[in-house]
């Protein structure tokens, strides 16, 4: 169900200490929502809460912080119970906690793959599992799950990240159908590259793929809020013409989209090898 009125609503945001999570907290707080910021970065959380409150000093809604590892089921369950105590409801859960990382599939270790899947997918799953019984009891609620354009197209050197974001996409579609008619709904968010700390940790993969920031966290946050207000299921933010075109091709001819992606990657790879040999 679309969340038409944020005033007095309780919004839980994972990954809330920075990036899209923090920007989303500000956007919801400015609309009068009580904010629950969850992040594993305990040192940054108090600063983040202050930033949220200062975004609109005229508001008197609550801003609470909790140090949470979204891969820990007990911690996530406790988070949702604490959020419930604010106003007796959980109206919106935005899952922004995310982990990047890349490299060739030959060098990508099993432990690295598990870490990415645990945070990006299992963290999303655990948040839904913990909040869903509360939303079922109140017969309303909304989830906004952060996927990525990498959850719609394949990106070389980002196999783990893509796998986790495709998992979020499939999970969203299946559960959205399962919850049809219950008053509980899901917006799945597919942004192109966003100017967040995770983007700047891309290393060689980001360099080879020519990744650059195309969106600000604030742009994504405003898109999320509007999509939730309108009950929009798919929020794809792809301001880059090449990415937008590839997404369109992917809908009708996935083989062509993969071929174009592979050709582009190999050209960059060969150019880098030639440059290193000079």
Q: In sequence order, what are the helices and strands, one letter per element?
A: EHEHEHEHEHEHHEHH
Overall mean confidence score, pLDDT = 92
User: Which assembly state applies to the chains in this document?
Assistant: single chain
Number of helical stretches of at least 4 residues: 9
Number of strands: 7
Strand order of the largest sheet: 3-2-1-4-5-6-7
Unreliable stretches (pLDDT < 50, length at least 5) are none
Determine the strand fraction and express it as a percent band: 5-15%
Major sheet summary line: 7 strands, parallel
Given helix and strand content, the structural type is alpha/beta
Helix content: 40-55%
Computed Rg: 19 Å
Instruction: Please tell me what the overall shape is.
Output: globular
User: Between the first and last Cα atoms, what is the distance in angstroms?
Assistant: 59 Å
């Amino acid at each position: 169900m679309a969340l038409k009125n944020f005033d007095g609503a309780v919004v839980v945001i994972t990954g809330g200490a920075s990036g899209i999570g923090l920007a989303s907290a500000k956007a919801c707080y400015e609309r009068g929502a009580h904010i629950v910021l969850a992040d594993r970065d305990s040192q940054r959380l108090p600063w983040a809460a202050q930033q949220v409150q200062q975004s609109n000093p005229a508001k008197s809604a609550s801003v609470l912080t909790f140090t949470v590892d979204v891969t820990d089921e007990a911690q996530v369950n406790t988070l949702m119970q604490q959020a419930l105590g604010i106003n007796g409801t959980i109206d919106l859960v935005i899952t922004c906690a995310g982990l990047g990382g890349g490299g060739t599939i030959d060098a990508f270790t099993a432990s690295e793959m598990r870490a990415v899947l645990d945070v990006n997918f299992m963290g999303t799953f655990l948040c839904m599992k913990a909040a869903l019984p509360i939303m079922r009891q109140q017969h309303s609620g909304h989830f906004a799950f952060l996927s990525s354009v990498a959850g719609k197209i394949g990106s070389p050197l980002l196999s783990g990240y893509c796998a986790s974001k495709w998992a979020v996409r499939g999970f969203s579609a299946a559960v959205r159908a399962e919850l049809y008619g219950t008053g509980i709904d899901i917006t799945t968010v597919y942004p192109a590259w966003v100017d967040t700390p995770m983007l700047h940790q891309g290393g060689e993969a980001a360099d080879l793929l020519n990744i650059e920031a195309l969106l600000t966290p604030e742009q994504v946050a405003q898109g999320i809020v509007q999509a939730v207000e309108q009950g929009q299921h798919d929020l794809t933010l792809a301001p880059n013409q090449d990415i937008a075109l590839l997404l369109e091709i992917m809908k009708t001819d996935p083989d062509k989209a993969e071929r174009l992606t592979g050709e582009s990657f190999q050209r960059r790879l060969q150019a880098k090898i030639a440059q290193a040999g000079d």
